[in-house]
Amino acid sequence: MRSTCFRVRLAACATAIASLLLAGSSLARPRGRSAASVQTVRLTLLSTTDIHGHLEPFSDVEDRPANRGLAKIATLVRQIRSERRHVLLFDCGDLIEGSAEAYYFARQDTTKPNPVIAAMNALDYDAVALGNHEFNFGLNVLWKAHRQANFPWLGANLRESYTRGPGYFPPYVIKRVAGVRVAIVGFVTPAVPHWEIPAHYRGYQFESIVDTARRIVPQLRRKADLVVAIVHSGLDRDPKTGREYKVIYPDENVAWELAEQVPQIDVLFYGHTHLQMPELFVHGVLMAQAKNWGESLAEADVTMQRNPSGHWQVADKHSHLIPVTGAVPPDPSIERIDAPYHAEVERYLGTVIAKITQPLSGAAGRVDDNALVDLIHRVQLADGKADVSLATMFMPSTRWEAGPVTIREVFALYPYENWLYTVEMNGAQLREALEQAARFFPAWPAENGELRLPSYNADSAAGVSYRVDLTRPVGDRIVDLRFRGRTLDPSQKLRVAVNNYRYAGGGGYRVLLGLPVVYRSSHEERTMIINYLRSGHPVPAKADGNWKVAPAEARQMLLREAESGRTPASFSEGSPGRRWRVRRASGGEFKTGRRAAGSH
Asked: Exposure of 192 by Cβ count < 10 A (0-12 exposed, 13-18 middle, 19+ buried)?
């Protein structure tokens, strides 16, 4: 990476770079041809992805500065534009959901323009791709943001009922830059229906990215000199080894397959997995992914060469990432736009809604019964009028200190825009759901010397008691499952509270698909937790211990690893888990060393 390339430079350095750029038309001339017969143009293509509503260099949940956000990205973009003549700026989706600010102005104060769109308009984005989280707040919020955008939102693999207006997302746009025709085509992961309630994507069908690209990219090649794909879909394999990850939805992350099967694409920016990739070539396609939340900016430099017949061709292309560091100041114009939004949200987040007398931690909330997860369960059981609740610890980094509990703490505990469903199911189906949750735990003893901590897809249950026996094979790990003190009868009818993500099969919980719904909440679950605490209900001081991992040695090992602070915060369905190599030391103790990581 060339991080120093985008810090404040000495005047002499800037002059030298400018002189080099102005001389660019004389570079890369083949021998034996005159200067008049060959023309070259350098195009700079920039991409962000998975901004998720992060504008300020500030963590609204942690209430502290952070090296992220569109304001810092804007500084990098404006500096590059001051040095380069031909710059295009793109985003690969997940823009308008994911931060407290994004939520607040989608749900609490709907009178103001969308702050993310206002900032992106000020930055003059050229095109963006739809992301799956664009649908989280429903179509009215999405369409309002689309109306306000001064840039095109693209969705080539959408089969749409809408042909015009804010509900219509074109497949591509073509821009002419320095005489070069640049086609930009956008794609969204087709896994959206696995996670969203149908009302949030009414009128849209999500087709295969690769199949759509096979059809549309050859058409673009006839219309354009350079084809750029902006894709909200990540890699389903290790880019260094080619080893495919174990995935839940094969159609979710197909960026590699897109490059492999549609090599007519010249540059492919991608996102969705919250990883980053400075440069990758697959079948000649240049691929790059910026870090989420505005933590880095992807730059691809493409040299186009026009031959005597007037046809433009790619002569050279490379990419790298520019990290957002403490040395990058936020852009004042973006800060001015966001200042009133930020101030209003901070007042909201600081609202006190409860008090606790001792600190509570979510560190081990995925591997053991936990008081903070029990709070979610209590809300789901009460609001959903349910017998049983399924829920998870989304962010193991969550910690509530003793004293006042504010809305900010609830955002840390429940960061997603989920809704509550209560479904009818029987005991056998509940067991199947719990077996799916147990699937995300490692085997014991650790296979191949590896221990895998579970992702947020490992739900726990309240309203029943049980053990997760890791010595047993996957699919047969739930033992001693009891309801109201008695062994659960497979035919027992139950009302089970789940979030809409799970009801749609998210996390592989296909047993929940199509079950009769007897209750749907009118608010997101986070709002339900806030209202529950505001009404005077206490926060559990400790977990009720209705479930635990067995054997005891496995439980203790998982607890030590989880409480070490290395538990991954997962963001994606099909992402690989994080693993640690485990070796037995003297005295029968286990020691660990980090081996590899993957996240969304």
From this structure: buried
